[in-house]
Amino acid sequence: MDASEIVQQKKRQTALKLRIADLNRGEVISNEKMNFIEIDGKHAGRVNVIANVIDKFVNDGEKKYAALTIDDASSQIRVKSFGDDISKIKNIEIGDTVVVIGAPRFFNNEIYILLEIIRKTEPEWLLVRKLEIEKDSVSKQESVKSDDRLSRQLKNIKPTREQEQMINSIAFNKRVDVTEEKIELPAKEKILDMLKKSDDGVDVETIIMSTNLPVEEINNIIAEMLENAEIYEPKPGRIRIL
What we know:
The chain is α+β, with helices and mostly antiparallel strands. It has helices at residues 3-12, 20-24, 124-155, 161-182, 187-196, 204-211, 215-227; strands at 16-17, 27-30, 35-39, 42-43, 47-59, 65-71, 76-82, 97-107, 110-121, 202-203, 231-235, 238-241.
């Protein structure tokens, strides 16, 4: 996979919700143009992390650079920003709990996050994220164990014709149920649903953080709705339904 392919994948990819320890144990994949991170065989193009800020550095000189060290109780990692993007963290202070979305990078023997979006949140969300990830992990393990048990049981069974028809019927219904569970609202409807629930409008950054849709897709949808006069901007960065 070359650099251009990684960039295209990054545009499409939803930010993975991770604990910092999972990110730090990722495998660094190197090629001639850049390094990227794989976690459990999956390319981590973008990540979504909730953590506390424990250190901050800002160089606002000729070579603008800023870095935050964040900790989610599983591990620590640095979040870096360059150029004009350092303005994103100027209002972030040590002790704040933040949601960070960015691209994992590897340089000088260090995995870090190249900042895309950051916002303050309540400390309670640290526990919510921990439980969310643990629940997802347990669900995957239980699903694998259940499938393994079912496979072992069916392997030694020679069903009658009636039993075979019943098994096929159950399997079909199970596939239908799983498909229905995965049905999600289209991206535009997700955004409209958020706007309908707010009389004062919604910040674009909030939409990005809440929907986990690709940033480029959200921007395109918002631009289209503005052009069609479905929504308007009461102030920059905030949209409201007409």
